[in-house]
Amino acid sequence: MPSEEPSMSRTNSDATVPPRLDTLVIGVTLFHLGSLYNDQSTMTFRRGMGTRVEIPVTGAFIEMADGEHILFDTGMLPPGWEGHAPPPRVLSMIANYGPQDDIRARLGEIGRTTDDVKMVINSHFHWDHSGANRLFDKARVFIQLSEYRFACLPDTFIEGPYIGNFLEKDRPFELLEGDRVIKPGIAVLTTPGHTPGHQSLLVRLPSGRTMIFTGDALSCPANLHPQTPPGNAHCLEHAVASINRLKMLADFLDGDLVICHDPAFWETWRPAPHCYV
């Protein structure tokens, strides 16, 4: 978690910080995109069954020096958008979602629109991470090939979070097969377990710090302890291996793990219009 926030942050009103030569990243802004109800046991394996917790839905806008700005996860599709109403089981999970939590509204807070997003990188295709992809029809979407295949035909016991009418199967995707440097300072890291093709994101800031967006590879900080893996993994063995990989990278790079569904997320991180540099 961030230990020296003042040295790696600025507001969007500050002058643009020149990027380091080894990164095109200018800054990262975090978005609050609503919240969901979840059972504690889905976050901590076999612990807290029957205890309802509220978890944030988050996204990140990455400003790039070359103008090809990136969005990591798009959040939920606004309910009822152009007839795409989520099923009742999904609506029952939404704890809070107002007009201000629409990804378009959050982009507006920093003077951006959907047209400014040139690349979308989804951690995976669950509805709370990719539901609003439809709003970015001009952006290139990066996803693991294994995740795309699984989302099109998921195992029946885990198919609930994949909503068919939200997944544009005829849209061209940038299908990745493993780890990939997308741009200087931006790399995707395969972290399967939560889903077969889950990926996390490494971002090198101009300050030299590294932000590691875990997606759902980590549900909460408790998962960093060996005896408390997440409880909603497609494959628990792969999930634990991915957690260990993220821990190692965070230690090696002295990086900050951004645990996207951490219930205490906004106690640690600052939302838009704040910008991390």
From TrEMBL:
Key words of the record: Hydrolase, Metal-binding, Zinc
Any Pfam family the entry gives: Lactamase_B
Family annotation (SUPFAM superfamilies): Metallo-hydrolase/oxidoreductase
Cofactors named for this entry: Zn(2+)
Source species, domain of life: Bacteria
Domain annotation Metallo-beta-lactamase: ranges: 56-261
UniProt GO molecular function: hydrolase activity; metal ion binding
Entry's family note: Belongs to the metallo-beta-lactamase superfamily.
Protein name stated in the entry: N-acyl homoserine lactonase family protein
Taxonomic source organism: Siculibacillus lacustris
